[in-house]
Design a protein that fits this description.
It contains 5 helices and 5 strands. With 178 residues, the protein is of the alpha+beta class. The protein has a domain of 97 residues: Alpha-Beta Plaits. It has a 3-stranded antiparallel beta sheet. The chain starts with 17 loop residues before the first helix and ends in a 20-residue tail after the last helix. Bound molecules: iron/sulfur cluster (SF4) (2 copies). One iron/sulfur cluster binds next to helix 4.
C-alpha cells in the first residue's frame, strides 16, 4: 500500500529490555533535562510587573484624547465606528449644553463611547478615520479579565485623565507613500 506521508515509520512490537522495564534510565534522563533547564536563562517574564519591549508601531489599547485645554476632542461623528471592520465601536451622541464648553471641544460630543476589546483586531483604522485626532492606539496591552462584559471599555477607561495625559506623538505611523 502507498504510504500516506514520507515520514511514516514501521511499528515494531519488540519486547522491552531489562533497562527499559525498570524505567530508571528514562526517569534520570528526564530529570537531567529538567535540571539543565533549571539553570538556563528563562524565556518567560513576570508579566505584568515585567513587560517586554514592543515595536514602535505596536497598536494596543485605545485612548480618547483631550485637547490642550483639557476638553474631549471626540465629536461623536461616528466615522471610527463606520470604518471599524470588527464593528467593535458604539457610541451615543449628545448636544453640548451651555456651560459645558470647558468639557467638550465641539457642539456635539460622545455621551457614551464603547469599544469591545474582544472584537477589536487592533487594525488602527479608527485612528486613521478620525477627523478630530481624538482616538489613538497606544502601546498599552489590554488587561486580562474574567468576564466578557469587562472587555467592553467605556469612556471611564478610554478618555485620558487630566492628570495623566498620554503622549501618542512618538508612536510611528506607517507611511503609505514609501
Ligand atoms: S483598531 Fe480596528 S478593530 Fe479595533 S476598534 Fe479600531 S477600527 Fe475597530
Ligand atoms: S473618535 Fe473621532 S471618528 Fe470617532 S466619533 Fe469621535 S471624532 Fe468621530
Amino acid at each position: 500500500m502507498k504510504p500516506l506521508t514520507q515520514r511514516s515509520s514501521k511499528v515494531v512490537n519488540k519486547d522491552m529490555t531489562f533497562m527499559e522495564k525498570i524505567y530508571l534510565p528514562a526517569i534520570f534522563g528526564g530529570m537531567w533535562i529538567t535540571l539543565k533547564h533549571f539553570f538556563k536563562k528563562k524565556n518567560t517574564v513576570s508579566y505584568p510587573e515585567v513587560k517586554r519591549p514592543v515595536a514602535p508601531i505596536y497598536r494596543g489599547q485605545h485612548v480618547l484624547k483631550r485637547d490642550d485645554e483639557g476638553r474631549e476632542r471626540c465629536t461623536a461623528c461616528g466615522l471610527c465606528a463606520v470604518s471599524c471592520p470588527a464593528e467593535a465601536i458604539t457610541m451615543v451622541a449628545a448636544e453640548r449644553k451651555k456651560g459645558e464648553e470647558n468639557l467638550y471641544r465641539e457642539e456635539k460630543y460622545a455621551k457614551t463611547y464603547e469599544i469591545n476589546m474582544l472584537r477589536c483586531i487592533f487594525c488602527g483604522l479608527c485612528e486613521e478615520a478620525c477627523p478630530k485626532e481624538a482616538i489613538f492606539l497606544t502601546d498599552k496591552i489590554v488587561d486580562a479579565d474574567f468576564g466578557r462584559g469587562d472587555f467592553i471599555y467605556g469612556k471611564d477607561k478610554l478618555v485620558e485623565t487630566l492628570e495623566d495625559r498620554i503622549d501618542v506623538s512618538k508612536r510611528q505611523i506607517w507611511d503609505y507613500q514609501q
